[in-house]
Amino acid sequence: MHKQVGNSADWETPILSIVIPTLNSAGTLRNCLAAIHAQAFDQKRIELVIADAGSSDGTQEIAREYGATVVENPLKTGEAGKSAGIAASSGDLIALVDSDNILDDARWLEKMIRPFDDPEIVAAEPLFYTRRDTDPALTRYFSMLGMNDPICLFLGNYDRFSMVTGKWTELPTIGANGFVFRRSLIESVNWSPYSFDIDVLAEAIDAGHRHATWTQVA
Fold first, then answer.
1. Model pTM?
2. Which of 48, 56, 49 shows the shortest CA–CA distance to 24?
3. Domain limits of the chain?
4. CB-hemisphere CA count at 13 Å for 22?
5. What is the pLDDT of residues 151-196, one digit of tens each?
């Protein structure tokens, strides 16, 4: 279900921890971090945490150039990187972003955290992937599909709007690509470096978040 909420004059912008798993991501990370720094958002309220799996291409140096805290991800997988980054972060809100993501609107972060002025909101997720004419053909194809793997189309499970079906399947996952959630959500479940996404969501529902509102922000 969806709930539209307004701004509250008494609501103070919380600290937002942006967690980015990396492994030899120098080719994309600079654009990702530059887009975060270009946000019309109080940068003092952003905590950047890079969970690196042992990069040897300058990824860590780029991260530190943008003021990020770099932590080790010894298990090397993306899921383990999310876990390591979250464990090292301190914000009330957590945004999971991939190193090849680019926030395409200067007010993107502002829009994504706006729903959290309602205490019933536990997470927010962008509804659409965007694309540029200069992107590779497969990137543009997947953005229109609304998923990274076409098999999800046939399974009927994808968490972005698909131009093929004209709908979203309304099954949010605690993935990357701009998923934002309250720290209290992750603290209510037994999460590990091996279980994220749907596993964590299922545990969150069992922990009492069954009636939480998951807000899609275009």
1. 0.84
2. 56
3. 16-126+173-217, 128-167
4. 35
5. 888 887 777 888 888 887 776 667 778 889 999 888 777 666 665 5
Q: Rounded CA gap, 4 and 116, in Å?
A: 11
Using one digit for the tens of pLDDT, what is the confidence trace for 1-31?
223 334 444 456 789 999 999 999 999 999 9
3-state per-residue secondary structure call for the chain: CCCCCCCCCCCCCCCEEEEEEECCCHHHHHHHHHHHHCCCCCHHHEEEEEEECCCCCCHHHHHHHCCCEEEECCCCCHHHHHHHHHHHCCCCEEEECCCCCCCCCCCHHHHHHHHHHCCCEEEEEECCCCCCCCCCHHHHHHHHHCCCCCHHHHHCCCCCCECCCCECCCCCCCCCCCEEEEHHHHHCCCCECCECHHHHHHHHHHHHHCCCEEEEEC
- Cα(121)–Cα(99) distance, integer angstroms: 26
Record the tokens describing residue 127, joined without a space. 């509804």
Which pairing describes strands 121-126 and 179-182: parallel, antiparallel, or unpaired?
antiparallel
The CATH-assigned architecture of domain 16-126+173-217 is Alpha-Beta Complex (3.90)
With tokens 């698909």, the residue in question is: 162
Can you tell me which residue has the tokens 């992107």?
A: 135
